[in-house]
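User: Can you write out an input/output pair for a complex, sequences first and structure second?

Assistant: Here is one pair. Inputs:
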Amino acid sequence: MNIGNVISEKRKALGLTQQALAEKLHVSFQAISKWENGTSCPDIELLPQIAAILKTTIDSLLGYPSQSVTDYDKRYGNEEYYWGLKPNNLCYEIMRIKPPVKPYKVIDIGCGEGKDAVFLARNGYDVTAFDASEQGLSKARELADTYGVKVDFFKADVRDFRLEADYDIIFSSGVFHYIPLELRENVVNNLKAHTTTNGINVVNVFVEKPFIPLPPDTEKGEFVVDSWKSGELFMYYHDWLFHKNEEWIFDCDSSGTPHKHCMDVLIAEKV
Ligand SMILES: C[S@@+](CC[C@H](N)C(=O)[O-])C[C@H]1O[C@@H](n2cnc3c(N)ncnc32)[C@H](O)[C@@H]1O
């Protein structure tokens, strides 16, 4: 499919008219019409914005299947839930700091098989969630159906998807290490800009420590991008109020070989 077909298909799937898309992009509706009938193409600088509005990736706009950097589709291929169904402890912290006295808008970035997104939806939050793994998303949708809750799950790549709407709570667990160094500031600034006042960002990230050997998964392509430095995540949020900034070292044998990880955990509020 060429880019015009992809734009047309995704626009219609979201129920957007050509005029509505044109307004969001500050272009004329004739421009959209020309892209969609193949007589012209959007400027390259518009691609990140088009991808964000159409809830997709630049890769898929250009007709490439979105390549997850990982083998998660395979890991999520079994019937059981790879990460189990117990919600992340950070979900309870979210409930403590921002109890669902109203349907706060949450986005779960890299939601995997959806255990946390579904848990939060079951507790009254208005949840949107994305992941690069189609297999994970399909199990996540099944889980939401099982509990009879609505979660807006969609496929996107954290490296090129940028938020357009504002959220009260932005949550991401075990995903930021997939964001390459050169994109980090841009990704984090987008999340911060799209957090409501008194909203929170709840994020953890694996960090490097000189005294902890690299995990064995490294050779298998799990930790493929530049590691985060200890404290780096906190620096990006230096101008927010910290509810939690912790670093912990834990044992893991996800690859079958026991090893250790170091993780920075942040809960920060935009004041
Ligand atoms: C360690 S798992 C964490 C899943 C989930 N947050 C949880 O805690 O159960 C990492 C997740 O990041 C997703 N992921 C990896 N690369 C990604 C990317 N570039 N964009 C979006 N998601 C990605 C994987 O598919 C996987 O579901």
